[in-house]
Structures are given as C-alpha cells and as structure tokens.
Amino acid sequence: MLKLAMLQSTVLAAVMIIAPVGSVAIGPGSLVKGSGSAVYYVADDDERHAFPNQSVYSSWYQTSSQSIITLDDNPLAELALGENVTFRPGSTLVKVATDPKVYAVSRYSVLHWVITEGLAAALYGQSWNKRIVDVPDVFFNDYTVGAPITKVADYDMQKELAAARTPQDNVQSNSSATDGWLMPNQKRRAEQLTTVFENGAPEFDYGYVENLDDGRGYTVGRVGFTTATSDAYLVVERYAELAPHSPLTSYLPRLKELADNEDSSVDGLSGFPQAWLAAAEDPILRAVQDAITDELYYVPAMQTSDDLGLQYALSRAVIYDTIIQHGGGDGPDSLSAIVVRTNQAAGGNPKSGIDEKSWLNNFLATRREDLINPSDSSTKDVWATSAGRVDVLQSIAGAGNYDLNGPIAIVSQDYNATIN
Predict the structure, then answer these.
(1) In 3, 25, 273, 390, which residue has its Cα 20 to 30 A from 194's Cα atom?
(2) What is the DSSP string of 131-168?
(3) In this structure, how many other beta carbons lie within 10 angstroms of the beta carbon of residue 45?
(4) Rounded CA gap, 213 and 227, in Å?
(5) Which residues carry out catalysis?
(6) The pLDDT of residue 25
(7) Which of 386, 395, 390 is nearest to 367 (CA)?
(8) What is the pLDDT of residues 247-293, one digit of tens each?
(9) How far is residue 346's CA from residue 207's CA, in Å, rounded to a whole number?
(10) What's the DSSP call for residue 352?
(11) Which tens digits make up the pLDDT trace of 42-51?
C-alpha cells in the first residue's frame, strides 16, 4: 500500500498554477500547501482538510486551473488539521480492497451499498463498473456506512451532485454525517438496544423466526417483522424483486393475504421458517431488512421526535424502540397513542416547554402500563413479559446517559448484554 505522502503527491500533478505567498488572500475555499506535497482545502471552520489522493481531488476539480497557495510551514501549521476531504457525492462509485461491496457516495461522506449490478447500471449506466474507484483501507474510516440502496428511488446521483458543489458543502464531522438525527454510534446503540430486547443479544439476528402466539403470526428478522402486519410482507416483496428465484417468493400471495387482513394465522406458511432461515444467509435479504427498518421505523421515529422537540439521543432511542414494538399506526397501543397519553400526563411535551427528562419519565411509565395492560388482549401475555425493556431504558436515564454513550451494561432479570 502506498504511503500517505506518496498518495498526496499525485494531487499536484493535476495543478498547473502555484500562487506565491501574499498574491492571493487565504480564506474559506482556498487550496493551500506547505513545503511538503500534501494539498489542503481551507473550510469556513478555519481548518485545513487534506485531499488523500488524486482521485478524491479530481472528483471536485475537473480542470488544472485551480490555484494552490504555497505557505511557509509555520503559518500552515496554525490552521488546525480537520477531517480528510472525501469523494464528491454522486461523482463516482467506490470500494475497498478488503470488501467486495460497491458503494455510492452521498453528502457528508456517507456510503450506501448498491446491492445488485442491475441497480448499479440503472444508477450509473451500463459502464458503471468503469466508474469504481478504490478507497485505500486506511481512508475507509473517513466515511460512514449508511442504509443500502435496494431500489433506484433510494439514490439520486444528480441531487447528490447538486447538493455538494465544493468541498465546503461536504465538510462536516462524521459525527453528524448519517442523517442529522443521531450520530452513527448513537444510532447503532439505539438499534442494538432494540435488538437485545427483541433477540437477546446486541448482534442483529437476520435469521430469527418464531411464532410467539402474540396475535401477529410469525415474527422474523432483525427487528421482529410480523406476518400479520405488512412489514414481513414488504421485506419478502422487496427481496423477491432482487432475488426472484428465492424459495421465499412462493409465499408472497399468502403473506399479502395475511397482511391485508391482519391475520395471525400461520396456515399456508408450511416451510416458511426454514425458507426464511436459509434466505437470511443472503446479504441481499439482510440489506433489505436494514433498508425497510429505516423506512418503516427509524425515519418515522426520528420525525416523531422532531415533532415532540426531543433533543437527547436516549429519548430518540426510546421512541425508536417503541415504534418497533407498538407500531406506528393509530391504534390504542400504538406509539402515537402513548404519546397522546404522555402529553396529557405531562401537560405538554418538550416542544411546548416541558422539561425533556421529566417528559421521558412520563413516557416510559405510560408505555410500561400499556405493556402490562394492552387493549389488544391477544398480546397481553407476551407484552407483559417484555415490560423489563422499559425498566432497562429507565435505568439508562437514571444513570444520566442521555447522550447514549458507550459502554452500556444491561444487567436485569430479563436481559444481560453490553453495548459498546
């Protein structure tokens, strides 16, 4: 592997004009260098951001007419060193040598796995494979991995290009890169908390399948999609579009019928658990589960959190866990119903001026009561045994970990795990 300095030196080969010190004002948008070969972009955070190599530089600057201001090393060092510049969103596809996946780049250095060659061709044309650029392993951590691309509508190359015309448009800390709601590690911990509650361990269990006799048919996958609601059907439908020869495809008509009627029966699903377990070894089904989890649960949970004026990562994680277990509809046991009852008990919500910590305590108490005494009698026995998940969330609040920092040690009668 090439050393960093060798990679950076290639940037200068594409630059024809070197401006002497004092001839050009240094400010946001300037390109600067010192006595070494590295070239930096000066952002409005008063930091210099290095171009790791020629490929990254060329994704932003297509001509050789950019001026680079040469500084003495001492004044250059006065500019704090910030995050590396990453590929311009929409400009190319990328991969790393140790990972066969091909990724599209979106704003704020977020990578999205393009899960099939057909999708890559639809997004970038038939010559898509000629647009792949390798990212050296040492620079892969400059990026955040976001939701996979499972359909053409998931990614708009022209929109990405338009959103980031200069490196300034893309220079942000990766801590805020994922979606503007939670930092990447906070989102991961929120997801892992729910996974501990659903499957007993912080690792996603894509192959989970069980009939819990809770009025929802088979519960499957990493967040407990169910055959009596539309989410399990949506996962299989999306997967069938990408892998039509999967044995799961044959269950689509019955799954649709069950979802349309909110039917908890497992009749007509003989062999479905085995087919699901086998398909869960396919990275495409895993990617589909990730994408639909975000679409149906994460995004709506964050939007609800915005509407409520929630600022703490823990509060948002609680809303996320609630929508997965209780659903996002308008039934008496749903997230929205619990929010209404909480607002009544608290006299409002944080957006209307109620202290967020107090509101969260009210919410958790209201949710726990709903788990013990749900309006849907068919879920009562199963939900009552899961009330301990609320106790875990309350204990995190009691420890003052509202930023959802790790490690989080979960030790209770029902759950035992550590989330780093």
Answers:
(1) 273
(2) GEEEPPGGGGGGSEE---B-SGGG--HHHHHHH-SSGG
(3) 15
(4) 12
(5) 198, 214
(6) 63
(7) 390
(8) 999 999 999 999 999 999 999 999 999 999 999 999 899 989 998 99
(9) 40
(10) G
(11) 998 788 999 9
Kindly state the tokens that stand for 322.
């609630």
Distance CA 238, CA 241 (A): 5
Q: For residue 409, give both structure tokens.
A: 């040690």
Burial of 279 (0-12, 13-18, 19+ CB in 10 A): buried
Rounded to whole angstroms, the Cα distance separating 238 from 153 reads 13
- Residue 136 tokens read as 């050296």
Q: Residues 113-135, buried b or exposed e (16+ Cβ, 10 A)?
A: bbbbeebbebbbeeebeeeebeb
Of 214, 213, 221, nearest to 248 (Cα)? Answer: 221
Per-residue pLDDT band at 179 (split at 50, 70, 90):
low
Long-range contacts made by residues 292-297, C-beta under 8 angstroms, separation at least 24? 292/225, 292/231, 292/234, 292/235, 292/238, 293/191, 293/222, 293/223, 294/147, 296/231, 296/234, 296/328, 297/223, 297/323, 297/324, 297/328
Rounded CA-CA distance 397/33 in Å is 48
CA pair distance 28, 38, nearest whole angstrom? 18
Does 171 have pLDDT greater than 80?
no
Judged against a pLDDT cut of 70, whether residue 10 lies above it is answered with no
Residue 414, both tokens: 């029902």
Query: Count of CB atoms within 10 A of residue 271's CB?
Result: 10
Model confidence at 11: pLDDT above 80: no
The dihedrals phi and psi of 317, each to the nearest 5 degrees, come to -65, -35
Check: CB of residue 373 under 8 Å from CB of residue 388.
Answer: no
Q: At 186, is the secondary structure helix, strand, or coil?
A: helix
Is 259:232 a contact under the CB 8 Å cutoff?
A: yes
Continuous segment of H or E residues that includes residue 368: helix 356-372
Percent of the chain with pLDDT over 90: 64
As a dihedral over the C-alpha atoms of residue 27, residue 28, residue 31, residue 32, rounded to 10 degrees, the angle is 50
- The DSSP-derived string for 258-326 is HHHTT----TT-TTHHHHHHHHTTSHHHHHHHHHHHIIIIIHHHHHHHHHHT---HHHHHHHHHHHHHH
